[in-house]
Structure formats: structure tokens, C-alpha cells
Queue: 2 jobs
Job 1
Amino acid sequence: EAGVAQSPRYKIIEKRQSVAFWCNPISGHATLYWYQQILGQGPKLLIQFQNNGVVDDSQLPKDRFSAERLKGVDSTLKIQPAKLEDSAVYLCASSKQGYEQYFGPGTRLTVT
Amino acid sequence: GESVGLHLPTLSVQEGDNSIINCAYSNSASDYFIWYKQESGKGPQFIIDIRSNMDKRQGQRVTVLLNKTVKHLSLQIAATQPGDSAVYFCAELHVRAAGNKLTFGGGTRVLVKP
């Protein structure tokens, strides 16, 4: 079974630029999550989708971050405009039923 | 390789010894507590979980202990191996009808010395 796929793996941008990350969850997993992991900290949930609907986006900075999962499968997370403090690893995870979440390798974003 | 975190508490352990990683939690309403392992350049990987009404659960080479009185969780790794070197996170899971929510705590870096 293929795992959660994410791209790109690394991205370097200047502040005020925009960036997008892509995630393809494990086949058949209805729930998809985006996390932000700042260096030295645990992952923090940004947004959670159930199929193509948003379940929880309470910690998403909506003035600059957006995410979509239009067909209920893959998802994109966008930041526009980026700030220095957005430098982090962005993790995507998916789950089928129950609670076990499977994480992708993440995208490491550096904002200069 | 990449570093998951530069300023994490670190546990150095000799290969073959047992490791104990501790975690304090704050929310007594959590339904499950879960330990994750994160290697450099990878996402967190599920190790073991414990339901909130249990005190102890054992897996292969790992044991999780839950002390609800003092809100403390620990992970014991028996006969630590070089492949156990990673950052370990505890997490709280809230079961919700709209979708379960996972909240991570701080991590501990484990370095296994040969």
C-alpha cells in the first residue's frame, strides 16, 4: 500500500511570495489533515477535511493560508503572502476509520 | 540528514539498555494517548497507543504507562537499538463525531550510543 505522498519536499521562497503544497492521501482514506511543524516542536493541526468538507480549520491563519480538497482525494495548501515565521515543515496525514493517522514525509519550507 | 528539532530534550542511552521517555499532558478529557516516532526527514510514525481508562499497555519492545492522577505518560523501550534513534512525541486524541483530533506535545530526542 502506497503511503501519503507530498510534494515538493523542499521549497525556499522570499517573504511576501506565495507557495503551494500538494498532498495525495492513502487510497480510500476519507480524512485528510494538514499540520505545521516548527523546528523543535510537535506538529500543530492547521486544517482537517472529511472527504471534501472542512471539519476543523480553527488554527488556520485564514488571512494568508488556504486549503482545498475539491474532489475528496488530493489536497493543496497555499500560503500567500508568506512570512518569515511560516518557515516550518508542512505535514499531510490521512486516516480511514478509527484514529490512526498516517503521515507523509512533509514539505520543508524556508522563507527568507 | 535533516534535523527534526535542534533544542529538544535529549536522552542518551547505551545500545541494549532500556529507555524511558516521559510526557506530561494537560487535558483530562482525552480519549486516547499515543506515542509517535519521528526520524529525520520523515513524518511521525505511530508506535503505540493507550486508551484513557487503562494504566498500561505493552507492545513489541515497548510499554506505555498512563498515570491519570498526575497526568503523566511514559514510553519504555526495551533493549534499545540504533534504529530507535529518533524524536519521540506524545499526543492526545479526542474522538469526535466530526473527525478525531490529535494534539501533539513536545518531543524528546533519543540518541542510542553503540
Job 2
Amino acid sequence: DAGVTQSPTHLIKTRGQHVTLRCSPISGHKSVSWYQQVLGQGPQFIFQYYEKEERGRGNFPDRFSARQFPNYSSELNVNALLLGDSALYLCASRTTGTWSSYEQYFGPGTRLTVT
Amino acid sequence: AQSVAQPEDQVNVAEGNPLTVKCTYSVSGNPYLFWYVQYPNRGLQFLLKYITGDNLVKGSYGFEAEFNKSQTSFHLKKPSALVSDSALYFCAVRPTGDSNYQLIWGAGTKLIIKP
């Protein structure tokens, strides 16, 4: 079975630009979460989407936005990029409604570098 | 503020010896607890979780973790370390009552297993 996939793998952008990151969850998983992982730190929660609705938001500015599509894939958008946005962006999916829904499955991440 | 602490940035263990990676948390209520592992240039992989029940939980790759409510700890253990266990390990906590399934993460512990 295919795991969580993310694209692109790597991305280099300039300050002030906009970026879109994409995520496809494991088949059957309806919930997608986004995390930012700065080098040397643990992941920081950005968003959770379930059934195309935002169900949670971390402490990130409004420059960060996301959406989930009918096929449960998701996009993370970041506007007006800052140098501090350079990080590994992780997408995670999970199933819902059972004990196993407590664990999230992560994609390989998108490495964003802002210059 | 709710937080997760991994007090050791790095743990060095000889192959074949037992290993322990420490995690303590400061979260209200009875949280759900998780361990994930991250290999270089790869996403996070789920190892094990504690939701309720027996304080000793067993997970993937021979790892286990012991939940101690009075010490608010959830240490990761393995009886006999392998060189292939070398990776970055993260402890994560989901606060009780958080319907957003947001995870609070530790900063990670680098585990180095020497032959």
C-alpha cells in the first residue's frame, strides 16, 4: 500500500514569494495534518483537516493556509515567505473512528529553503 | 504551558546493550503518548503509543515504553540495541480533550548505537 506522499521533495524560494505544498494521504484516511519541523527541533503543529474542514490550527500567522479536497488530498500555502519559514514540512494522515486513529502516518516531507 | 521534554540531546549505546530514551511531559489530564523515529531524509515513523491500560506498551522493531503517571514520564526502551536503531527519536503527547488531535512534540533525542 502506498504511504503518505508529498510533493515537491525540495523547494527553493525567495523571500516574499508564495509556495504551495501538496500531500496525498493513505487511501482511506480522511484526516490530514500539517507540521513544520525546523532543523534540530521537533515538529510544530500547523493545521488539521478532516472531511475538508479545518479542525485545528497551531500558532502560525495568517500567511499560512491550507485546504483539503474531496479526494482528501491537501495543500499547504504560505504567502510572503520569510527566511524563518525554511524548514521541513510534514504531512500526516490518520484514519478515524477506531483506536488505531490515534496514530498518525507521516510523509517524507518537503524541504523548503527560503533565500 | 503544555510541554514535552526529552532531556538528552544524544544517547550513545554499545550494540547489544539495553537502551533507554527518556521523555517527560507537562500536560493536563490523562494524555495519549507516542514515540516516533526519524531516519535521515525521511519522515517520521510511528513506533508505539499509550492510550490506556497496561503501563508497559510494546511497539515496532522490539521497542517498548513504560508509562509512569506519578512521574509523568514515558521512557522508550529496548533490551538489546542494534546498529540499525541509530536514528532520531521523538516523544509526542496529545492532550486529553483535544479534539483536534494536535500533538505536542519533544525536541528529539539522537540515538547512536556503536558496533
